[in-house]
Please model this.
Amino acid sequence: MQGSPTFLTGPTGLALLAAPTAADARSAIGAMANTAPEITTNANGTAYRWPNGLQICTGNGVAQAPTFQYGSLWAALVATWTYPAAFATTPVAIGSIIGTTGRWINFNPSVLLLDYAQYSFSYQSVSMTSKLLAIGTYTP
Model:
């Protein structure tokens, strides 16, 4: 069925398309570019909070090595990262492991913390630190 997309009104009062485009994303980012975020840094990392309710948290995980067999994979012990500021809703978690290939991170986020572990297809005894990022909302 063709026609105009259905518009929804989000918590920011901005019109949100049912199927957002790259232009919509650029417009939203451009609007935020003129508003400096509130920045909080503590022992857990850094939280960036915009007045519209967007929050981005960054931090370092602990060094892990996938040395425990988990079915046909190898896994590290689960670690926990407490965000530098709480989220209002469960955020999306993203991470990377600097200095290696063939490893990835599995996440279980909540509004206060992130449980995560590194995985690999093979046994890897070298511990590496995860770089962690969570994106979600807070209540302004």
Q: What stands out?
A: The helical segments are 22-33.
